Amino acid sequence: MSVVIIGGGQSALQVADSLRGNGYTEQITIVADEAGLPYQRPPLSKDFLSPQGTPKPLPLRGENFFSQKSIKLLDGVSATDIDRPNRQVALSNGNSLGYTHLVLATGARNRLIECPGSKLDGVHSLRTLDDVQDLHAALPAAKNVVVVGAGFIGLEFAAAARAHDCHVTVLEFAARPMARALSEPMSQWFAQAHRDLGVELRLNEGIERFEAAGGGEVMAAVSSTGQRYPADLVLVGVGVLPNVALAENAGLETSNGIVVDQCLRTSDPSIFALGDCANFPNVHSPGRTRLESVQNATDQARHLAGSILGDESPYADLPWFWSTQGPYRLQIAGLSQAGDDTLVLGDPRTAKFSVLCFRGEALAAVESVNLPADHLAARKLIGAGTRITRAEAEEAGFALKNRARVIAGAV
Amino acid sequence: MPSITFTQPDGTAQRLEVEQGTTLMRAAVSNGIDGIVGECGGQAMCATCHVYIRPEYADALPELGADEDEMLDCTAAERTERSRLGCQISTGASLPEIIVDIPAGQV
Ligand SMILES: Cc1cc2nc3c(=O)[nH]c(=O)nc-3n(C[C@H](O)[C@H](O)[C@H](O)COP(=O)(O)OP(=O)(O)OC[C@H]3O[C@@H](n4cnc5c(N)ncnc54)[C@H](O)[C@@H]3O)c2cc1C
Ligand code: FES
């Protein structure tokens, strides 16, 4: 018996930890291509880049975790091939590992843009510790920053660059920021909030090309509308692509991620996948999804450890997410979706409010700014399947917190 | 060097010496202290770094922030008047040593 886990991120580490926590005593090996102790990604685009911040990695687990729990970490090694008939994984160091169960926790990589100048010096992306160390070194001297893509990471970075007093322009191809993940009212509120922080947010405007200065470093960004923005530092944040090559080459089913069932099993019953690389049947939104969040990585990991040990229950945890953009703490419970009926609770002018998203008459997601109490209550309520209608939420004196107390009392 | 002592629910204690300014969460996670998870990386977003502070150190702590207060309402183990989030408390000149108790669960 042995479990091999490919990937060294939040998903991989939590699977190993939960297997031990559930009493699994056989061999566990983690194959991680990034060298060094696996670390947490969320601080990379937040604290690390603030003017007082230092990019000192926050480990996912301490060094002694691996010896204490008898978990073998092969860092700086990548898995290159899966031999399914013989249940062997080939490694970049020439060795191979046999498995009874294989876990694919390969995560995602940044989507690159293909336009003239996209490889110039000064054009960055942000996913790894190395990336953030480069940015941390470049930010203090930067004057004109251009961010391509108004997603979470782009906007977190934009807020950090403003805190360094840079002039910041954000180019976004879509009509509103964070459009894939946020309801219209919340997205519009953030557009204004970033403008108030001094960010020049250009919507419906993509990138056309970058221009180089004499030394070969980036000097300007030219947008799809022909506008030219001076730039000495560019961050490209246009989303990620799941790492599926290994699975695909092994003949496993993939479609925007590695396709898994409710138990997080791939089309091969001895191979599982989770986290940023997995496409799973989501009970909280119609059809399948692939999510990129800490909650998704860790809750799926706990579930997957159970699946390996024979638990057949379906994964059904409620997705939740957060993003910190300058002074604004955004928290999301559930998944909002185009077409949801929205209701704003609280006064957006105070930067403390929530957007409730209703689907088919019931509350499906809540997005909150600077209101952890609403977020936590929403997690409890939606997670427990409590039916809350728009009419109820519109009643005078309605508060998610009070409503959550009622269900807590009833349990 | 400031020191932090973590006491497990079974009474075993581990004392760590850490750099000035290290949060309780970072110290615990970096040193493989069981029972502190720190899933959100110290953003006061997950409440998996919950600790109980020994009363004799209560006065030396930074005030409870509004966000921290609200997050403490969702800890896995019971919240008491000694509850704090380990990511919001740093060691330093005003807190050269501290002893905390680790709750029975974090998730
Ligand atoms: C800058 C940044 C900020 C973020 N902020 C937030 C936030 O505020 N809130 C939130 O909820 N989420 C946030 N996230 C998302 C969250 O960090 C991810 O969803 C989570 O890390 C996913 O974990 P994972 O283990 O599935 O994948 P990853 O973290 O991508 O880990 C996968 C690892 O596997 C390695 N790997 C891939 N292929 C192989 C191979 N063949 N052999 C060996 N190793 C391999 C990869 O190099 C990588 O190290 C953020 C992400 C980033 C990048
Ligand atoms: S680490 Fe998440 S709340 Fe402290």
TrEMBL record, chain A:
InterPro entries: FAD-oxidoreductase/Apoptosis, FAD/NAD-bd_sf, FAD/NAD-binding_dom, FAD/NAD-linked_Rdtase_dimer_sf, Reductase_C. This is Pyridine nucleotide-disulfide oxidoreductase. Keywords: FAD, Flavoprotein, Oxidoreductase. GO terms for molecular function: oxidoreductase activity, acting on NAD(P)H. Residues 1-301 form the FAD/NAD(P)-binding domain. GO terms for cellular component: cytoplasm. It comes from Glutamicibacter soli. Residues 320-402 form the Reductase C-terminal domain. Its cofactor is FAD. SUPFAM superfamilies: FAD/NAD(P)-binding domain, FAD/NAD-linked reductases, dimerisation (C-terminal) domain. It comes from the Bacteria.
UniProtKB/TrEMBL annotation, chain B:
InterPro entries: 2Fe-2S_ferredoxin-like_sf (IPR036010), 2Fe-2S_ferredoxin-type (IPR001041), Adrenodoxin-like (IPR001055), Adrenodoxin_Fe-S_BS (IPR018298), Beta-grasp_dom_sf (IPR012675). Gene3D superfamilies: 3.10.20.30. It comes from the Bacteria. The keyword DNA-binding does not apply. It holds the Pfam family Fer2. Its cofactor is [2Fe-2S] cluster. GO terms for cellular component: cytosol. GO terms for molecular function: 2 iron, 2 sulfur cluster binding; electron transfer activity; metal ion binding. Belongs to the adrenodoxin/putidaredoxin family. This is Ferredoxin. The keyword Metal-binding applies. Keywords: 2Fe-2S, Iron, Iron-sulfur, Metal-binding. One of its GO terms (biological process) is P450-containing electron transport chain. CDD domains: fer2. Residues 2-106 form the 2Fe-2S ferredoxin-type domain. It comes from Glutamicibacter soli.
